[in-house]
Amino acid sequence: MNKAIEIENVNKSYGDVRALEDVNLTIEQGEFFGLLGPNGAGKSTLIGVLGGLVNKDSGQVTVLGNDVVQNYRKTKKSLGIVPQEVVFDPYFNVRETLEIQSGYFGVKDNGERIDEVLDALGLKYKEDTNIRGLSGGMKRRLLIAKALVHDPDIIVLDEPTAGVDVELRKSLWDYVIKLNEQGKTIILTTHYLEEAEQLCDRIAILNKGRVVAVDQKEELIKRIDKKVIEVKLQHKPNNIEELFPTAANIEWTDTNKLKLETTRGNVISLLDKIQNSSLEIVDIDVNSAKLEDVFMKLTSLGGEENE
Ligand SMILES: Nc1ncnc2c1ncn2[C@@H]1O[C@H](COP(=O)(O)OP(=O)(O)OP(=O)(O)O)[C@@H](O)[C@H]1O
């Protein structure tokens, strides 16, 4: 079986800026893949290269075994790319926009598919509305609909939920999960790390144009030896620091919670200590590291590791 995407030794510079540096990535068919990185890491450039919209300087990219430059027409049909920027021709209504988009992909008589996509994205009641009359969130829904009219095998979502309300987020994710369950490959870039943690199976982290990690989500998170014990107390103790000298970090929150950061190996002894203390405990939670911890460690936001 062909890989959904194979990216080999891809480089791209804009003048002095190395937007992509020796990028190698393989994405299997049916994966829900996260492409994460801070602003300017190269995510959109990589998606541009994938979609044949950005000319790479070197390297090779194939989509379902077809080279994105040599077989542009074929690869274009396999991909549904939802771009970050919302740009539309303001003279058409919602349905016309999707009909034109279907034509662009050479799909005729696409009414049924258009209905399905309009329904799934909660746009049906707006089908006759002119683009100028749509709210920002509705325009974003239409952007997603446009990428799906030709029923592509691989769906690439570049920051699809930036600035959209909770309701759309939920309905969008429900739909994308359904598409993934039907066998579609999903590639997602987002700055909402919690969303990526919930949705993606495998994640690549880009930093300054380079892939600094690619692994199963759980494996990435395991790289961080961190546990946070959260103890809700009746009252704030006055000698917190002295009580728990082995905790790596201690924080008291407005919600009467004592947060003790520690390592996996130290959790039990800290819990013992809490139990044997005279603290008036209301509740206790023990939390593991999150994707955000890995992200911070591996990208420049986290400091020296990647300098
Ligand atoms: N057309 C362009 N001309 C010049 N520089 C560009 C161009 N497009 C991107 N860059 C630069 O390439 C680098 C990578 O940008 P890119 O947009 O791919 O990052 P990104 O990870 O998508 O960022 P964000 O999360 O902010 O969308 C940045 O330094 C950016 O300024």
From TrEMBL:
Gene3D superfamilies tied to this protein: P-loop containing nucleotide triphosphate hydrolases
Subcellular location: Cell membrane
Record's signal peptide: none
Domain ABC transporter: 5-233
Keywords carried by this UniProt record: ATP-binding, Cell membrane, Membrane, Nucleotide-binding, Translocase, Transport
Transferase recorded as keyword: no
Protein name as catalogued: ABC-2 type transport system ATP-binding protein
Organism: Halanaerobacter jeridensis
